[in-house]
């Protein structure tokens, strides 16, 4: 039994044979351009004939200033060398030269269908249905075994929502795939859903040919339910992308778009509550100012104010009266003291004068003793305030 080759041995042997086989050097090949894409300044594309495809690459394309219009569907001649990638086990043609030959029959058919549907208004903006902001029932058309389901639903589940997914599993490429997609559109459109999403996890331009089928395009245009297409290609635009109500690139992007308003609803609610709070606080502030003004006006017009004014006036009058009474009392007291002083002075004077009464006889001689008088004598008694005449009768 022969000893098996290791993976590394096989790759090295295969690369060595390709490198030294003259038929694989300076290749000159004709085919249709498909699957055009740029990655890290390298241009990748495929050459297609019927169902056969070979991959090509122009390394550091952006630095070479190649004057060529790379468009899907045109026929070209290329010159290059075979290259074998050990890591991906892929055979590539490293292209040195490329020349346009013309458009392929398949691509001309695609352009013819595109123009036909354009004239019928299938791609017009006014015929697009609005995508609901908060869809609750969503029909999902995709492969049951593909990664698109996981990508789409994982994004949907990132935020709380009440979305229900109605899965319609189909083939997304192959001869019978278009009929399954068409039937799925009609079936989900009859279920009164809010939205239908048609998606797949990417693929080459040739893999997407199902979505250029006229039956699918007509079913999508006739549907009452809004449709989002997300079949995973940046460069290749299918007729489904043009007729759908919204075209996105990937299942993840479709899920993000569907959940966008749910994702922001918490922020929106917090924002609205904050706005309501500010409005309420502003209203309260206005009412407080009005209340203060009314309170001030009420104080100004209150009978209590008049009573208080009268009380103040009475207090002022009482104080003034008290002051006058006190002044009068003090003045009267002073007068009484002065009168008492005068009375005392007059009393002393009277007492003094009482002690100084003069008695004289008819000859005006002072009499100092009663023995000096006889019965019948007339005398003059002189007081301090006048004099009287008297007769001695005892």
Can you give keywords for this protein?
single chain; 394 residues; alpha/beta; OB fold (Dihydrolipoamide Acetyltransferase, E2P); Rossmann fold; five-stranded mixed beta barrel; 44% helix
Report helical residue fraction: 40-55%
Backbone structural class = alpha/beta
Please report which band the strand proportion falls in: under 5%, 5-15%, 15-25%, 25-35%, 35-45% or over 45%.
15-25%
The radius of gyration over CA amounts to 64 Å
Number of strands: 13
The CATH architecture classification of the largest domain is: 3-Layer(aba) Sandwich
Number of domains: 3
The side-by-side strand order for the widest beta sheet comes to 1-2-3-5-4
CATH topology (fold) name of the largest domain:
Rossmann fold
Intertermini distance: 204 Å
- CATH class membership of the largest domain: Alpha Beta
Give the overall silhouette: rod-shaped
| Uncertain residue segments | none
Write the topology of this structure:
Elements: H1 7-20, E1 27-39, E2 42-49, E3 52-58, H2 61-64, E4 74-85, E5 90-103, H3 105-119, E6 137-142, H4 148-156, E7 164-169, H5 177-189, E8 195-199, H6 214-222, E9 227-230, H7 239-243, E10 246-248, H8 251-301, H9 303-354, E11 358-361, E12 378-383, E13 386-391
Helix pairs in contact: 4-8, 5-6
């Amino acid at each position: 039994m022969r000893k098996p080759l290791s993976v590394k041995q096989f790759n090295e042997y295969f690369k060595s044979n390709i490198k030294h086989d003259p038929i694989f050097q300076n290749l000159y090949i004709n085919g249709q351009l498909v699957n055009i894409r740029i990655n890290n300044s390298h241009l990748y594309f495929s050459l297609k004939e019927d169902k056969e495809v070979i991959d090509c690459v122009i390394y550091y394309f952006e630095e070479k200033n190649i004057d060529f219009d790379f468009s899907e569907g045109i026929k070209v001649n290329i010159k290059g060398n075979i290259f074998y990638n050990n890591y991906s086990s892929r055979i590539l043609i490293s292209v040195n030269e490329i020349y346009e030959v013309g458009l392929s029959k398949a691509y001309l058919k695609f352009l013819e269908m595109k123009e036909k549907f354009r004239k019928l208004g299938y791609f017009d903006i006014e015929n697009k249905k609005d995508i609901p902001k908060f869809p609750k029932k969503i029909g999902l058309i995709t492969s049951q075994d593909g990664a698109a389901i996981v990508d789409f639903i994982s994004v949907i589940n990132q935020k709380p929502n009440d979305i229900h997914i109605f899965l319609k599993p189909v083939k997304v490429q192959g001869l019978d795939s278009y009929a399954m997609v068409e039937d799925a559109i009609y079936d989900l459109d009859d279920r009164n859903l809010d939205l239908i999403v048609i998606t797949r996890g990417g693929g080459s331009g040739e893999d997407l040919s199902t979505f250029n089928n006229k039956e699918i395009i007509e079913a999508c245009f006739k549907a009452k339910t809004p449709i989002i297409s997300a079949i995973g290609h940046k460069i290749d635009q299918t007729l489904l992308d043009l007729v759908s109500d919204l075209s996105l690139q990937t299942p993840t992007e479709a899920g993000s778009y569907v959940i966008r308003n749910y994702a922001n609803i918490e922020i929106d609610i917090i924002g609205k509550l904050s706005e309501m709070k500010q409005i309420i606080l502003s209203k309260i502030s206005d009412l407080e100012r009005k209340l203060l003004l009314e309170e001030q006006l009420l104080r100004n017009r209150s009978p209590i104010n008049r009573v208080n004014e009268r009380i103040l006036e009475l207090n002022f009058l009482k104080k003034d009266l008290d002051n006058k009474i006190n002044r009068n009392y003090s003045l009267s007291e002073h007068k009484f003291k002065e009168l008492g002083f005068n009375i005392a002075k007059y009393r002393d004077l009277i007492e003094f004068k009482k002690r100084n009464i003069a008695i004289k006889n008819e000859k005006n001689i002072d009499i100092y003793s009663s023995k000096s008088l006889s019965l019948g004598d007339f005398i003059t008694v002189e007081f301090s305030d006048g004099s009287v005449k008297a007769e001695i009768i005892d």
